Amino acid sequence: MAFGPHLLLAALEGLVTSAVLALMALGLSLVFGVMRVVNVAHGEFFMLGAVLAWWIASLVTGHPAIGFLLALVISPLIVGAVALVAERLVLRRLNYNPEATIVATIGMLYIIQQLALTFYGPQARPVDAPFTYRILFPWFGYSGYKLSIIAASIVLLTATWFVLTRTKIGLVMRATQYDSETAQAFGIPVDRVYAGVFALGAMLAAIAAVLIVPITQAHYLMGMDPLLLSFIVVIIGGLGSLRGTVVAAVLIGLSDGIISAFFSPTLAKIIATLLVAMVLVFRPQGLFGTASR
Amino acid sequence: MRGGNSSAKVFLLHIAVIGILFALNFILPEYHHGVLARVMVLSVVAMGYNMLFGYAGLLSLGHAMFFAAGLYGAGLTAYHFGWAMPAAFAAGLVSGAVLSLAIGLLALRTTGVAFMIVTMMFAQVCYLLTFYFSEWTRGDDGLVLGQETRRLFIGDFYLDLTHPATRYMAALALFSVVLLITLFIVRSAHGRVLVAIRENEERTKMLGYDTFANKLVAVVVSGVICASAGAAYALLFGYVGSSFASVQYSILPLLWVLLGGAATTLGPFVGALFMYYVVDITSSYTSAYLLIVGVALILLVLYFPKGILGTIRERWIRWLP
Q: How far is A177 from chain B (nearest CA, A)?
């Protein structure tokens, strides 16, 4: 393949990664922005979403689209419920202390990972894509499903943006993010907002996982790399900023796709991680964020 | 509390612990003898971690890189260049010092959550580097140091570190030295400044202390201690692999310190020993040992944030360092 088409292919792959990454990072960013909690277990919610999607799809016979759509609805709901329980039982009792919650979410990471290994096993299993239409470019055919992931992600991101900026729920969330004590004084049930945001963040990760699982397969260790990438996206984009998160996701996804198509993926990861650590050291508010209060 | 009487008690307690460990060499059954040697080396990592987390209040999620720096510093020089044991061990210490100085200069510009994430990312870079240079490190498969590289020559006479009793004594020597060094540091002026920084950094700064310099010293001391454990692990147990640089080896010292009691000199050892046996005993019933680690972490932060020795100090023995 010539360089141009090769680059196009790498860019398309990168955009698919960006689409999934944006959803997942948005969940992480919401949880951090509103609750000031760094959720290290976020990658495991992603993994749980994928594993549950496989389980749900395997229960349903008939056209693969039925199983996939069921998984797309049910899997995030279950993951959201798990997150809700975890929030009520653990995070709330820690008073959302940043350091204690990191240690606790590391604990959750190990628990979820081990339970997945015990009950789901070490195999990687695929979920059938809901449709297999291929779009033919002059140089290569490309999976129509992958392009639909990008579309789905755009729809979901727009919906989240709409909820955050144009509805009462969004207003309550932003008020809590801005100053939780004053919000409480104005009668906002901050406690319930926290629970809802944590569940919502986990559900976004689960949706991202269900969308990607027809391409990558479900595996109990699949949460680690997306977690690190999401951290990178959230940091570059500025913690708690929706626009920054989306821009950073596209940037990171595209460069990840293109760099790993032409260079060693390990080297790409090393450089990306190092650059992000440097961003955090020298520009802690992120490349697009404003200085924190 | 700081009277001469309690100083003597503190000193006697530490000497007694070392003495008991020395005596155990002669009475422990073979299996537990081997476990204890390993736990002593691993608890040195926890002691290094405790310097930073317990006393200075800096929670790092990347200490695996310092352990790995010592491990590879000693392992690679011994394996590829055939360096003798003291030189290889020194190489491990030097690589730990250089790495921790560089990381400290960068990471200490951040605080709180950002510090945790930055240290985690630098550790991830180090982990990936062990794969990138797999021509030298052989990645996950790792290197096995042969018996001939693990002999300590003193003139014509040599100590064979593959021999269990010698290995136990070498581990105990490292453990004792590091334990006494940490005891000395936390009772020194520098140690008190670290505690002051943990409690209120702004106020400490206002009192005229250079908090950055003190924290930097703490990072380097902590890094070198962890590297000494890594170097000792490579030379005593003869295996050098990427898994020791993984994020899990950053989390385990945190768990040991939390369990044993942060900011207690003997807590890291108690935590490491306790956790090792918990995992060891449960693994005969279930292979799900990560589950135990996870549950332990959550229960500790929820109900037992001071750890075993921290609670004992609070309730009963006030003079415990």
A: 17
pLDDT digits (tens, 9 = 90+) for A40-71: 899 999 999 999 999 999 888 878 888 899 99
Q: Which of A92, A101, A114 to mutate to probe the B interface, most B CBs <10 Å?
A: A114
Q: Is residue A161 part of a domain?
A: yes
| Residue A236, pLDDT score | 79
Helix (H) or strand (E) holding A136: strand A134-136
Choose among A90, A98, A115: nearest Cβ to B113: A98
Cβ separation B301–A98 shorter than 8 A = no
A182, A185, A186, A187: CA torsion to nearest 10? 130
> Could you report the predicted ipTM of this complex, rounded to two decimals?
0.80
Partners of residue A280 in chain B, C-beta under 8 Å: 110, 114, 117-118, 121
Domain that holds residue A105: 22-222
Q: Is A212's pLDDT higher than 80?
A: yes
Nearest 10 degrees: Cα torsion B46, B245, A94, B54: 30
Q: How confident is the model at residue A149 (pLDDT cuts 50, 70, 90)?
A: very high
Asked if residue A76 belongs to a domain, the reply is yes
Domains and CATH numbers, chain B: 4-246 (1.10.3470)
Task: Give the single-character DSSP code of A125.
Answer: B
Q: How many domains does chain A have?
A: 1
Residues of chain B with pLDDT under 50: 1-2
